[in-house]
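For the sake of transparency, this paper describes our internal protein records without simplification. Such a record has a labelled line for the sequence and another for the backbone structure tokens. Nothing more is needed to write down the fold, since each code stands for a local backbone conformation. For reference, a complete record is included directly beneath this paragraph.
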Amino acid sequence: MPGSTEDLAWLPRPTGKEEGHWDRLNSVYVRFIKMDNKKPNTLLDLAIHQLLSNETAAIHAVEKIPRELFAPLFCASFKGVHKNIVKAMVKVWPYTCLHIGTFTIREHHRELLTAMLECLPFLPGQNSGSRSPKLRILDLREYSGCKIVCPEIRTKSPACLFSCAHSEHSILKTQSQQSIASSEPEVQPSNLPMELIVNISLVSGITLWQHEFLALLLKKVEDSSGSLHLCCRNLEIDKLGDRKNILNYLDLKCLINLSVFQGSLIDVNNLLTRVGQLRRFCLSRITCRSLNGKVFRNFVSHLRCMDHLNELNLHSFVLTDHLETALRVLPTSLDFLHLTFCELSYNDFKFLAECPQANHLKLLNISSNPMYWEDCEPFYNLLHRISGTLQHLAVTQCVLTDSMVAGVIPALSHCSQLQELNLSANPVSMPMLMRLLEHLTFLMELKYLIYPIPVHCYGRWPIQESLDQQKTANVQARLK
């Protein structure tokens, strides 16, 4: 970004006659936003605001209000951090599911998540007039993109659109087993199977609240005698050897995204024996004694089973001359590929340029892999192959020189869908930078370009302390 000591950013914008048109569009947009912000409150908004001003009345009202009002009232209660009202609503929630994925969780909202979790299990009301508990799926994931309530499926199933589909302990399979055993006594409301959908981070540096929330999660599962299924969709974990006790509480068949930071490939393999169908898989700082040994072969066997993998992220995972072994077993539907600090060789780049797994990439990050002149041809061929789909490209700290950049400019110029390009921390001169920008101007989708500070700005490239701030400022001014 502008002002950074590592790189600079250039945002293409219309010029000349188009600039006036851009300004007019921008002013219309601003006026539209202002008008929208002044939209008067509806009667429903006013009624909810009035109700929330009296906590006792609001808690009493949740027993009687129509179910259609629960979602808007819950939204207002959650955003306003009305903890007791949120707890009261969750206990009598009239729908099968409740998702918080549309909310931005700030620090002051955390007590609400704890309060919602403390409500479990749901007990029947103390009087005959109380609503019976219907909530079976509580989804506490942030940024999940789910609406608060899913459209109801017209079956007797307690499922929603985001129900767990893989675990043997999922609510779908548990309910099916209970239906088969129809001769058994009716299940009590407090023992009805429930699903708690979460994302879990088991990495160093998590906050005290995260520790306490995780402890509460595990206690609820332990106290439920099997009726509460903890469905973890996104797991981040480091130091695998120290996390085994916690992992025993999790059914890893539920995982969609798995990120492992720091560990041995042996421990990763042990973890993958319990994992189902991942969509995103990230490994960082993983050690392996030999890429020709049994441990690496077992790892490749696990990759072969990932039929639905959409994103692979390998960081500080040495793969010299073995990229083909790892990638060729993956599905050809990969959209996102990160291979950073992997010490890729010419053979690796050559395979990457030809393999079907890279045919439709939307994102490619090969940063921190030193490239040499002979690597340019396979890299050029790769860019040419994916020019119709590539949207994000990062080639930082790859020791790209002027001649190498010049060699790939024609391929870059044909990446018609490219939106973001990061070439920072490469020894490029100012004339080559200007030539690059000239060719990229015609890419209509390009919104962000992070380019390297030209080598003439350094006393000794790439030592940051030798950077001449005045020369850097002159470059910024010239490229505005």
Summary: The longest strand covers residues 228-238.
